[in-house]
Amino acid sequence: MTSIARWHREEWMWTIRNAIAALAALVLASILSGAQVFREAALGSGGFNAGEAVRLLGFAIALTLIWTSAWRAAAQILASDPVSRLLHEGLPPFATLLILPGVNGLIHPFLSEKAVTIVSWMFVLLLLATAVWLGVVLHDNAEALVLGAVAIKRRISDAAERRTHACQKCGASNSPAAKFCTSCGTLLAQPSGRNDRVTTASDKDRSSKEMRRSA
Ligand SMILES: [Zn+2]
Prior knowledge:
By secondary structure, this protein is mostly helical. Helix content is about 75%, strand content about 0%. It has helices at about 1-10, 15-35, 35-40, 50-75, 80-105, 115-140, 140-165, 195-215. The radius of gyration is 30 Å and the shape is elongated. It starts with a helix and ends with a helix.
């Protein structure tokens, strides 16, 4: 069991490395772009400087890392069940939809006024196409969404039932089917309607004892 957990951790270790690298790129870029020496190192005459260049580079690296991570994760997740299939097919369009506005913002400073309109329309079409792509994936994987919703609902109701099925003596939560506390062994009170027979039996027992006592 622990070896399986370790195997999974190693298999997904790159996601942590990528996340750290993306974060480092963003943090370093914002620190360096604010440094005076970078801002004073002008590049060309348009007010562009080394600070701006470093900032754009950092954001470009972070966006690339996020996007490639999503594709790699999608490739790594095998579509063996409905939820895995949803992730396998849905991660690439979802990540693309997330990073496209960022890419647009990155190239914006380099565009002439005329080019801005053309490029903006290009991005509008790209975003619409990606939204349609994601919509098709969600439509095809509606089963997974329903399964996911049902699983979440079941987990919530299970947790609620577990809480109500707590041991009166030690407070430990027990599975709804448990008759005795797994922690201290106390007989658990059964939820109403589940074993009326036990209640009637003990009632009968008590009434017979009372009868004997009075006799
Ligand atoms: Zn107990």
